[in-house]
Amino acid sequence: MVSLSEKTVSIKKILCPVDFSACSDEALKYAAYLALMDSAKLYLMHVIDVRMYGHETPISFEMPRPDAETIERMKKELKASISSQKIYEKINLETIVTVGIPATEIIKAAKEKQVDMIVMGTHGRTGIAHVVVGSVAENVVRRASCPVLTVRHP
Q1: Using the 8-state DSSP alphabet, how is residue 8 labeled?
Q2: Are 108 and 143 contacting, i.e. CB atoms less than 8 angstroms apart?
Q3: What is 13-152's CATH number, 3.40.190.10, 3.40.50.620, 1.10.10.10, 3.40.50.1100?
Q4: How far is it, in rounded angstroms, from Cα 35 to Cα 119?
Q5: Fewer beta carbons below 10 Å: N end or C end of the chain?
Q6: What is the DSSP string of 67-115?
Q7: 41 in Cβ contact with 96 (< 8 Å)
């Protein structure tokens, strides 16, 4: 029998996808806390939704896809957005910015980085909004090979 005093779970790598919403800000607080507790590496990830590009709009304007330079600049901006908060100075932090379908890219990054946990916000949409927008968090929970902590904004 395992004693509760024994540490049976080791979290050394945490992935925290952010979409710059209040929900993902709340999830980041939990991810940072968990990273500090176990001295874990925190991967802060943003996915540029590919579905926003390559489709003509009513005025026949197509948005250009971000290039490597733009993605690198976004990584720096992502890190800078949290660098003013002292708590993040104590965390081994890496930023990831990708272009793709959010749930798919999150699952892919979790496997590539071999994370022990994903911590992400959920908007808690229901009804028609859920049907139309879908749920990135729900897809990640269903497909992830590691535990997923979902955080709702209070």
Answers
A1: -
A2: no
A3: 3.40.50.620
A4: 11
A5: N
A6: -HHHHHHHHHHHHHHHHTSGGGGGSEEEEEEEEE-HHHHHHHHHHHHT-
A7: no
Distance CA 100, CA 50 (A): 5
Structure tokens at 138: 């729900």
39 membership: H or E segment, kind and range: none
How many Cα neighbours within 13 Å face the side chain of 41?
11
Residues with Cβ within 8 Å of residue 2, at least 6 apart in sequence:
8
How far apart, in whole angstroms, are the C-alpha atoms of residue 35 and residue 88? 10
Question: Facing residues of 118 across strands?
Answer: 15, 148
Reduce the DSSP state of residue 150 to 3 states and report it: strand
Question: What amino acid occupies position 151?
Answer: V
pTM value is 0.81
Tokens representing 48 are: 């540029």
Q: Give the total residue count for the chain.
A: 154
* Angstrom distance (rounded) from CA 105 to CA 107: 5
pLDDT, one tens digit per residue, over 18-69 is: 988 888 889 999 999 999 999 999 999 999 887 766 555 555 555 567 788 8
Q: Assess contact for 36 and 91: CB atoms under 8 A.
A: yes
